[in-house]
Amino acid sequence: MSSTLEKPEKHLLVLGVTGSIAAFKAAELTSLLRQRGVQVRVIMTESATHLVAPQTFLTLSQAPVTLSLWDAPSWQPRHIALALETRLLLIAPATANILAKMARGIADDSLSTFYLSHEGPVIVAPAMNPRMWRHPATRENCRILQERGVRFVGPACGHVACGEEGEGRMAPVEDILDAALEAMRP
Predict the structure, then answer these.
(1) 3-state secondary structure of 148
(2) Contacts of 146 by beta carbon, 8 Å cutoff, 6+ apart
(3) In 122-161, which positions are buried (b, 16+ CB within 10 angstroms) versus exposed (e)?
(4) How far is CA 59 from CA 28, 47, 53, 66, 88, in A?
(5) So what's the pLDDT on residue 7?
(6) Long-range contacts for 84-87 (Cβ within 8 Å, ≥24 apart)?
(7) What is the Cα–Cα distance from 43 to 65, expressed in whole angstroms?
(8) Are 96 and 135 in contact (CB under 8 A)?
(9) Is residue 78 within 8 Å of 52, Cβ to Cβ?
(10) How far apart are CA 17 and CA 20, in angstroms?
C-alpha cells in the first residue's frame, strides 16, 4: 500500500518588496489585495526595510513578514514551505538588482531564494532610474526573464524620485493590482 502526500491548495500571493523608493506603494498594494480577499505574505529585502518598516506590512497583510532566510519558526526552510502554498509571486517594486539576481539564478537573500523555489507565475513591476532601466545589462536580464515566462507590468514613463523624467517609474498600483488579480484566477 502506497500513500502520497497531497500538495496544499495554492491560494497565497507572495509580495516581494525591494529597495526602491517606490516601496511605499507596495503598502497600498497590500491593502488593496487584502480588501479583495487575497491572502498576502510579504518578503522584504534588507534594502526595502530602510524605506518602509516591516511592521507596516505585518499590519496590512495580517501575516508575518519574511526578512531573512534564518528566521524560520520550524524545521522546514520557510521559502520551501511558502512556495508549496503560493499561487503567484509578485515583486513590486522590482529593482535592477532583483531582476539581475532572478535572471542569473542568484539566491543570496529571502526573496531571491524564494523566487528559485517558486514554480508558479511571476509578475514584476520594475522601478528604477531611467538610465538604469535602459542599461544593456538590465535590458538583457529582462529579456531572459520574459523568455522564462515572467510577466512585466511597467515600468511607466514620468517623473522619478531622483528628479529625472523617463521610463523607469513603477506602474500605477491599480495596473499591478489588476494583473495580480487576473493571475490569481483559477
Answers:
(1) coil
(2) 152
(3) bbbbbbbbbebbeeeebeebbeebeeeebbbbbbbeeebe
(4) 12, 20, 10, 13, 21
(5) 39
(6) 84/7, 84/8, 84/10, 85/8, 85/9, 85/10, 85/11, 85/12, 86/10, 86/12, 86/13, 86/14, 86/41, 86/118, 86/120, 87/10, 87/11, 87/12, 87/13, 87/120, 87/121, 87/183, 87/184
(7) 6
(8) yes
(9) no
(10) 8
- Nearest 5°: CA angle at 49, between 145 and 132? 40
- For each successive 10 residues of the chain (186 residues), what is the average pLDDT? 38 94 97 94 96 97 88 57 84 98 96 94 97 97 98 92 88 97 90
Selection from 177, 160, 176 nearest residue 168 by Cα: 160
Angle between helices 110-117 and 96-104 (to 10 degrees): 40
CA dist 153 and 66 (Å) reads 24
Contact between 145 and 48 (Cβ < 8 Å): no
Q: What does the alpha-carbon distance between residue 184 and residue 186 come to, in Å, rounded to a whole number?
A: 6
Write out the catalytic residue numbers: 162
Question: What type of residue sits at position 65?
Answer: V
